[in-house]
Write a structure and sequence with these properties.
- The protein is α/β, with parallel strands linked by helices.
- The chain has one domain: Rossmann fold (3-Layer(aba) Sandwich), CATH 3.40.50.1820.
- 33% of the residues lie in helices and 18% in strands.
- The protein has 10 helices and 12 strands.
- Strands 2-3-5-4-7-8-11-12 form an 8-stranded mixed β-sheet, sandwiched between helices. It has a two-stranded antiparallel sheet with strand order 1-6. The chain has a two-stranded antiparallel sheet with strand order 9-10.
- A hairpin with a 3-residue loop joins strand 2 and strand 3.
- Helix 2 crosses helix 3.
- The relative contact order is 0.17.
C-alpha cells in the first residue's frame, strides 16, 4: 500500500496543542496517532473527530476533562492528522475506518470508555460500539448523524435525507453541495470548512494548524474520500452500518447524552433520533450549546468539555 506520512515538523508549535504524540499499529501496518493525557487510572474519555478535522479539534476540550481527573484519549483516524495516510481512495471505507478504530481499542486495551462522537465520529465510533459494546460505559453525541435514508426520518431532520413513498430518496441539496465542494477544490484545505462551519472568527495560526497534516494533494485521499461515503441511499455501506449502530443503541445499557449546538442545520434533528433510540438517554440532562456551529469544539470547546466531565462524574440514573 502506498502510504504518506506527514513530516513531524509540520506539527511543531501548533497553538494550544502541547500534547506528546503516541502511536499504535493498525490494519496492515498503518501507524495511528493519538493524544493520551490525564491520569492512567482516570475514567477514559474517547474523543472522536470527523471530516476534515483531526485531534487538534479537541485541544480546548481536553483540559476540562483532565482537570476533573479523567483520562482524555483523542485518536486521529487513518488518513487524518498525524496518522498514516494511504494514497489511494479505494483504501478507505466506512467499515475500514471502524475496523481501524477497533484495532486501536484492542492495541490500547481501553475499556469502560465514555465515547464522545462528532461529525463522522458518530458513524465510525458508534459502529465500533455496535461491534464491541462491552468496551463502552456511556456515549456523548455532539453534532453527529447516522444517515440511513430510512423513510421514518421524513420530517425529523432539518437537512432531509429519507426515502419517499415511491422509493426515491429526498436529500437536502446542501449535503450534495458539500460533497461536490470536497471534490472540486483544486487545493484541499480543511481550514476552509472549519471556518465555514463555525460561528467565531478563527485566528490564522489556528486555521493553519488544521491544514498542517496536508502539505499537498498526496496526503488528501482520505479527507477527500470520506464525504463520498455518506449514507445518502438505503443500500450504501454507510447506511447499512448506521442501521446496525442504531439497533445496537436500542440494546445498549449505558447512558447517552446529547450535546448538540443550536447552529448546525446539518445535524439538527439527529439529537432526537438518538435519544429515541437509546434507553440510556431517558432522564439525562441533555444540553443545547448556544452560539456554536457545526464544529462546536472550536466555538465552545471548554463548555463542551465541562458537559462531558459532568456526565462522566454524575451518578448513574
Amino acid at each position: 500500500m502506498d502510504v504518506a506520512r506527514t513530516p513531524d515538523e509540520r506539527f511543531t508549535d501548533l497553538p494550544d496543542y502541547p500534547f506528546e504524540p503516541n502511536y499504535v499499529t493498525v490494519g496492515s501496518g498503518l501507524r495511528l496517532h493519538y493524544v493520551d493525557v490525564g491520569p492512567k487510572g482516570g475514567h477514559p474519555v474517547l474523543l472522536l473527530h470527523g471530516q476534515p478535522t483531526w485531534s487538534y479539534l479537541y485541544r480546548t476540550v481536553i483540559p476540562e476533562l483532565t482537570a476533573r481527573g479523567h483520562r482524555a484519549i483523542a485518536p486521529d483516524f487513518i488518513g487524518f492528522g498525524r496518522s498514516d495516510k494511504p494514497c489511494r481512495r479505494a483504501a478507505y471505507s466506512v467499515r475500514g475506518h471502524t475496523q481501524w478504530l477497533l484495532d486501536f481499542l484492542g492495541a490500547t486495551g481501553l475499556t469502560g470508555i465514555t465515547l464522545v462522537v462528532q461529525d463522522w465520529g458518530g458513524p465510525i465510533g458508534l459502529g465500533a460500539l455496535a461491534e464491541e459494546p462491552e468496551r463502552f460505559a456511556g456515549v456523548v453525541a455532539a453534532n453527529t448523524a447516522l444517515h440511513t435514508a430510512d423513510a421514518s426520518l421524513a420530517g425529523a431532520l432539518t437537512w432531509a435525507c429519507h426515502t419517499m413513498s415511491d422509493g426515491r430518496v429526498a436529500v437536502e441539496p446542501a449535503l450534495l453541495d458539500y460533497q461536490r465542494m470536497t471534490q472540486e477544490l483544486a487545493e484541499f484545505r480543511p481550514s476552509l470548512f472549519v471556518q465555514g462551519a463555525t460561528r467565531t472568527e478563527i485566528p490564522r495560526d489556528v486555521l493553519d494548524a488544521y491544514d498542517a497534516p496536508y502539505p499537498d494533494e498526496t496526503f488528501c485521499a482520505g479527507a477527500r474520500q470520506l464525504p463520498l461515503l455518506m449514507g445518502l441511499t438505503p443500500g450504501s455501506e454507510c447506511a447499512r452500518q448506521n442501521r446496525r449502530s442504531l439497533d445496537a443503541l436500542r440494546t445498549f445499557d449505558g447512558p447517552l447524552l446529547t450535546a448538540f449546538s443550536d447552529g448546525d442545520p446539518a445535524t439538527q434533528g439527529w439529537e432526537a433520533v438518538l435519544r429515541g433510540a437509546a434507553p440510556g438517554a431517558a432522564g439525562q440532562a441533555h444540553i443545547a450549546i448556544e452560539g456554536a456551529g457545526h464544529f462546536l469544539q472550536e466555538d465552545k470547546g471548554p463548555e463542551l468539555g465541562r458537559a462531558i466531565a459532568n456526565f462522566v462524574t454524575a451518578p448513574p440514573r
